[in-house]
Amino acid sequence: MAKVIVLTNQKGGVGKTTSSAALVAGLQKCGNQVLAIDLDPQGNLGFSLGVNIEDGHTIYEVLKGEIAPGDAIRHTEDYGDIITSNILLSEAELFLKGEDRKLRLKKALETLKHRYDYIIIDTPPALNILTVNAYSAADELIIPMAAEILSLVGLVQLKETIQAVKESINPRLHVLGILMTKFFKSTTLSKDVLDMASSVAGQIGTIVFETKIRNSVRVAEAPAHGMSIFDYSPTSNPAHDYRVFVAETVERMGA
Ligand SMILES: Nc1ncnc2c1ncn2[C@@H]1O[C@H](COP(=O)(O)OP(=O)(O)OP(=O)(O)O)[C@@H](O)[C@H]1O
Ligand SMILES: [Mg+2]
């Protein structure tokens, strides 16, 4: 039965998609059956994993109830299965109606969970009905956070949303940790943000991952080639860091 991991932070550009892609590729390389789900209307995860996102069925049709979840799955050569996204998903607040509006994704995944070891969900930079659907379906949340100024803005809101979902729809929801990205080991700024992240982690009742993902232009180059960082630049700092992060994730989930 698959464990569902959701990468979330309503702040944009903090490494949600990059970390989702690395987790998908890394878990797959360790021999797991992995399903990636792109819940961001921008469609970056599918693109990053080399899928042509211009055609094929998407999560939009699944959430609308137009097709069976299994029919939206695309098979990739190197990165397992994926359900891609569509820009129409940005109208979710309008088309997700009815009492089960927060539970559509969870219900869709129930029919797929037995096929996989992990389901990894990338989310948009927002706290909206899509994120709530993701939290409702999740076992674990991972909060990527860039080691840059203003990165912590909005974390109180994030904390409140997590709490609200826990109290209403998904009492089992657990925050696995905060993942520092774009990290420079030597700068005071990175250290300051790390200190603040530790304090936020304490308030949310979680930890900051031991592994920090170092900054490298290699990370930005990989998606254009439709390759994970492990394949695009296996010896780069972030490839090393993401390998350790995948191991830390598996270990912490087993703990
Ligand atoms: N470790 C890193 N080093 C250098 N650049 C990075 C690193 N991680 C991410 N980036 C770059 O930062 C940008 C934002 O990353 P990414 O798309 O993963 O963030 P996101 O949180 O998914 O953004 P959005 O909120 O728009 O979906 C991208 O251009 C990406 O290549
Ligand atoms: Mg993204």
TrEMBL record:
Upper lineage: Bacteria, Bacillati, Bacillota, Clostridia, Lachnospirales
**What is the organism field in this record?**
Aequitasia blattaphilus
Question: Which named protein is this?
Answer: ParA family protein
Q: Identify the domain of life.
A: Bacteria
Under InterPro entries, the record lists: AAA_dom, DNA_Partitioning_ATPase, P-loop_NTPase
Task: Domain (AAA): give its ranges.
Answer: 2-174
